């Protein structure tokens, strides 16, 4: 079975075609500048890269182009679209309605669209991609939707409710939803394979990248996470502020005479690593700037790592124990320095960190705690696209 995985943004459409027999990626790429021009970058398993400018007024034209590259020319990987058994879509926000992946029926598509206010930059684009796929693929090609928020739907009210008038929860569904759930679920499942199950285990999963979140996973179920109503909450990130006293936002808006949209732009695109350091939103460049003497860059690094330690400790307290910590995401998998700074001097939680393994296994899967460590520490590379493909395969096979 071949599954096409789609991750649509407002002006982009990333994709991977995966052979589910071997779980190998056959081809992948990205359609960019949708609505403002068009560029597609298409990569094959043999290393071949094709890049072409195109005209993408909507997501439909982007789908037509990616289908052309998949099916025609001497670099075609399928002879006909009928060879693609199903399409799986990443959906950022499922609200309170979806706790698992489902088939994309008309009712489901309408529901995703109805909660676009909760993710105005993402959900409308996801719906456009699903409908574009319906136009381009043969009638009856099943589509499956996989929600970033689904894994976090097991959080109890004490974790997801805010201390606001209850009417805002009832009227506008204002609550913590959490994001990166597909990644947190993937690494939790992989940890279970590595240690013989997570039943009865208390785990903290750290997805660290340009966007970062941490989840408390008890007995395989999420019980809390750092991101909230939107992906803005929690850790300081590449350009996102993370958690901020709400009064600070009101204070700045008043003194700078800012509109809500202007303040949102500051919090989402001008803050985080970029805003604090004044240098960059990229963690690698942040480290370089620090080494060259930038005190603000070092303060930003210190804050990010301090927050990670703090959340690991608080989630251990909330769950009443800790059995494992997992690092994943671009920074989590690739920065041995960060993992060292976070995990050393954590004996109070039962972590005995192995520096040698940490360096040796950088960028690779493996345990980086000592054998006598009460709490295991792991690097587990995430693969959200594969999880989406697996869910899609499972649901489609269940239809037979």
Automatic annotation (TrEMBL):
The active site is at residue 148. It catalyses: acetate + ATP = acetyl phosphate + ADP. It comes from the Bacteria. Its EC number is 2.7.2.1. Mg(2+). Can also accept Mn(2+). Keywords: ATP-binding, Cytoplasm, Kinase, Magnesium, Metal-binding, Nucleotide-binding, Transferase. Its cofactor is Mg(2+); Mn(2+). Catalyzes the formation of acetyl phosphate from acetate and ATP. Can also catalyze the reverse reaction. This is Acetate kinase. The gene is ackA.
């Amino acid at each position: 079975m071949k599954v096409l995985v789609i991750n649509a943004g407002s002006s982009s459409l990333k994709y991977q075609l995966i052979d589910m027999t071997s779980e190998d990626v056959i081809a992948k790429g990205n359609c960019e500048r949708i609505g403002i021009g068009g560029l597609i970058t298409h990569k094959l398993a043999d290393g071949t890269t094709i890049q072409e400018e195109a005209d993408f007024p909507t997501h439909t034209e982007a789908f037509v182009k990616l289908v052309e590259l998949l099916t025609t020319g001497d670099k075609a990987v399928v002879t006909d679209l009928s060879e693609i058994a199903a399409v799986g879509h990443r959906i950022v926000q499922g609200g309170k309605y979806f706790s698992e992946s489902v088939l994309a029926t008309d009712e489901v598509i309408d529901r995703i669209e109805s909660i676009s206010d909760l993710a105005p930059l993402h959900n409308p684009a996801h719906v456009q991609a699903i409908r574009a796929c319906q136009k381009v693929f043969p009638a009856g090609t099943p589509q499956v939707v996989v929600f970033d928020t689904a894994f976090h739907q097991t959080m109890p009210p004490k974790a997801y409710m805010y201390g606001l008038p209850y009417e805002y929860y009832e009227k506008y569904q204002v609550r913590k939803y959490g994001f990166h759930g597909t990644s947190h679920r993937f690494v939790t499942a992989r940890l279970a394979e590595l240690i013989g199950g997570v039943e009865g285990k208390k785990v903290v999963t750290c997805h660290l990248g340009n966007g970062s979140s941490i989840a408390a996973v008890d007995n395989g179920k999420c019980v809390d996470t750092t991101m909230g109503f939107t992906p803005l909450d929690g850790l300081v990130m590449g350009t996102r502020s993370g958690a901020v006293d709400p009064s600070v936002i009101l204070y700045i808006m008043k003194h700078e005479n800012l509109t809500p949209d202007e303040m949102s732009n500051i919090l989402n695109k001008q803050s985080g690593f970029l805003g604090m350091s004044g240098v960059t939103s990229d963690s690698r460049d942040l480290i370089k700037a620090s080494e060259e003497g930038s005190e603000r860059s070092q303060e930003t690094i210190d804050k990010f790592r301090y927050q990670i330690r703090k959340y690991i400790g608080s989630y251990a307290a909330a769950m009443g124990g800790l059995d494992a910590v997992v690092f994943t995401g671009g920074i989590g998998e690739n920065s041995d320095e960060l993992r060292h700074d976070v995990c050393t001097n954590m004996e109070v939680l039962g972590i005995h960190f192995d520096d040698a393994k940490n360096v040796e296994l950088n960028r690779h899967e493996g345990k980086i705690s000592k054998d006598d460590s009460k709490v295991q520490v792991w690097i587990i590379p995430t693969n959200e696209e594969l999880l989406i493909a697996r869910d899609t395969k499972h649901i489609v096979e269940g239809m037979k």
